[in-house]
Amino acid sequence: MGVLKVSFIILLLLFPLGQITRLDLHNGIVINLIDLAVGIVMLIFLFVNKSKKWRENSLTKPIIIFGAIGLLSLIINIKVINLSEFIVSVLYGIRWISYAGIFFVVSAFDHEFKKTITKIMLFVGSLIILGGYLQYFLYPNLRNLYYLGWDEHLYRMFSTFLDPNFAGAFFVLYFLFVFGLTMHFIKSKKKNYPMFLSLLSACSVVAIFLTYSRSALIMLIIGSTTLFLLKKQKKLIIMILTISVIFFVITANNFYIENLNLLRTASSKARLESASHAIEIIKDNPVLGVGFNAYRFAQSKYGFIKEDNGALSHSGAGTDNSFLFVLATTGVVGLISYLFIWFNIFKRAFRILNSNGLQETMSAILIASIVGIFANAFFINSLFYPSIMLWMWTLVGLIENKN
Q1: Residue 104: which residues within 8 A CB-CB, separation 6 or more?
Q2: How far is CA 15 from CA 5, 107, 273, 282, 394, in A?
Q3: Could you tell me where the DSSP H helices lie in 285-385?
Q4: β-bridge pairing 23-24 and 30-31
Q5: Which residues pair with 24 in a beta bridge?
Q6: What is the Cα–Cα distance from 371 to 367, expressed in whole angstroms?
């Protein structure tokens, strides 16, 4: 097994660590072990991949164009942001390019190793689910980490992501992945896989509910509906809607606890305030934004966050809407180029949907995941969350035919 394959396996095995290895450095720089691992994998890929066929891929230009627009947006704002802020923003831009580059890495692997990746994804995802249940019963809040900028998240499942909303988004992605494979193996008449995967799917759904994340619940309904329609299993749509209604009724007794109240208004007001701040910034910088990943510094200059609070809060670097985040930091030009990347991914996934076997299932899972995460991205900045980026770009690479 080559060094690239070994390094990628190590990367996936580090995935369950989530935000546990997060390290907040000076001037808002945040890095974790997974970021470093992604960077190492990309360096190895560029060194060992002699064919350079990745340059001919239809996604190469859209990704490079968005990266270039991100850099241009920073350059034109060089008079507004100081040198250290510019460097920090460029580093985050490099991080996004590195995560997007995972697509090229996975695409280059042979068919058999892609099957191995699928199995490892099942395994690492199950570890995150298991970690969530252990956390839910043994570590029900983050009160002791409040001084580090984390919210308490009392009585909610947040697993190793330390945030129930992002954990919920990943749980939905994992459910779509597992349940999609479950339907595939049932159709293939495999005996043992469907039973195990069905149990894993059930555990994933319960985990989603235990996050008490409304954005995750919306994502679950939209994503699973998309998957069931693609797999021609319309009856399952009724099932997921029924389960969601039952959960709402059962948990209604706990609505007096703000964190567990699915009708809570405090977080909704906070999201609306976050959106209004983004819109104000967009109005002043409509074409190329304030600079990719320079949003924290823009918020500080607009007086939306204080310097000390901005450095401490984990939400200061973005807004609770991925599309507003792109629009505010790279403008209309950047948003169009970013959406063009996903349009190309969506188009090729639909093309592969007409194939047979596991490839067809993986394309259906990817389409459902894209639809789901796009719905989720209207409520949290999930499209730029490292763990979700790694998962999504790996999925995109899995449907790519090496030949």
Answers
A1: 45, 54, 57, 60, 397
A2: 16, 19, 32, 34, 12
A3: 295-302, 307-312, 322-352, 358-376
A4: antiparallel
A5: 30
A6: 6
Sign of CA dihedral 205, 372, 177, 387: negative
Residues facing residue 31 across a β-bridge: 23
Please state, in angstroms and as integers, the Cα–Cα distance from residue 388 to each residue in 34, 35, 76, 326, 395, following that order.
Answer: 12, 12, 30, 17, 11
Residues in the chain: 403
Nearest to 213 by CA among 403, 376, 402, 2: 376
Residue 386 one-letter amino acid: P
CA-closest candidate to residue 342, choices 328, 326, 358, 357: 326
The Cα-based distances of 9 to 120, 200, 340 in angstroms read: 8, 22, 30
Q: Please state at what angle helix 295-302 crosses helix 266-284, rounded to 10 degrees.
A: 90
Helices 322-352, 266-284: crossing angle, 10 deg rounding: 90
Q: How far apart are CA 383 and CA 389, in angstroms?
A: 7
- Tens of pLDDT, residue by residue, the chain (403 residues): 699 999 999 999 999 999 998 887 766 677 889 999 999 999 999 998 876 777 778 899 999 999 999 999 999 998 888 888 898 899 999 999 999 999 999 999 999 999 999 999 999 999 999 999 999 999 888 777 765 666 677 789 999 999 999 999 999 999 999 999 999 888 877 767 888 999 999 999 999 999 999 999 999 999 999 999 999 898 999 999 999 999 888 887 776 666 676 767 677 888 888 899 999 999 999 999 999 989 888 888 888 876 554 444 555 567 889 999 999 999 999 999 999 999 999 999 999 988 777 889 999 999 999 999 999 999 999 999 999 999 999 999 999 876 5
Model-level pTM? 0.93
Hey, how many other C-beta atoms are within 10 angstroms of the C-beta on 107? 20
CB-CB contact of 155 with 362 (8 Å): no
Count how many Cα atoms sit within 13 Å of the Cα of residue 147 in the half-sphere of its side chain. Answer: 1
Q: How far apart are CA 33 and CA 211, in angstroms?
A: 25
Concatenate the DSSP letters of all residues of 233-288 into one string: -THHHHHHHHHHHHHHHHHGGGTTSGGG-TT-SHHHHHHHHHHHHHHHHHHHSTTT
**Nearest CA to 97 among 365, 338, 372?**
338
Half-sphere exposure of 52 (CA within 13 A, CB side): 0
